[in-house]
Amino acid sequence: MEKYLNNNSSEKLDKIIKYIMNSKPYIKVKELKEKMKKDTSLMNLINDVKALQKTYIKSGKDKKIKKDLDEKLNHLNKNNLYAEYNYYLEQVNKMIDFVNEELNAYFHNLTNNIVLDK
Predict the structure, then answer these.
(1) Are 51 and 64 in contact (CB under 8 A)?
(2) How close are the terminal C-alpha atoms of the chain, in Å?
């Protein structure tokens, strides 16, 4: 694949990525993810939820499986470590979404200006 970004563009993107990676929410996500990996009961619960989600979809949305899934999700969301992880992960995702929206707006404006100039 060709490299489409010049050095200036790459430097600006690197700066944005470094900003996100050095932010408190990103650092907390990494720390909490490591703590979660050490909590076997939590990891088992997460894996159970993932398996039930797949089973639920494959079943054509069976109501019994949905009930089991909801119970597991409720139990998972009550876990303080998981709740804190989700809180910070949402903040990181918001930062990434903001960057994505800015890039989309930039491309939209750029393409509209090119089309209008022709």
Answers:
(1) no
(2) 29
Alpha-carbon distance of 60 to 66, in angstroms, equals: 10
Distance CA 45, CA 43 (A): 5
Q: What is the dihedral of CA 100, 102, 106, 108, to 10 degrees?
A: 70
Listed as ranges, residues in the chain with pLDDT below 50 are 1, 117-118
- The answer to whether the CB of 77 falls within 8 A of the CB of 49 is no
Identity of the residue numbered 112? N
Average pLDDT of the chain to the nearest whole number: 91
Q: Tell me which residue has tokens 């797949």.
A: 54
CA–CA dist 35, 37 (Å, integer): 5
pLDDT at 115: 56
Closest to 46 (Cα-Cα) out of 59, 32, 60 = 32
DSSP 8-state code for residue 69: H
- Look at residue 61 and give its three-state secondary structure: coil
| Residue closest to 82 by CA, chosen among 44, 54, 112 | 44
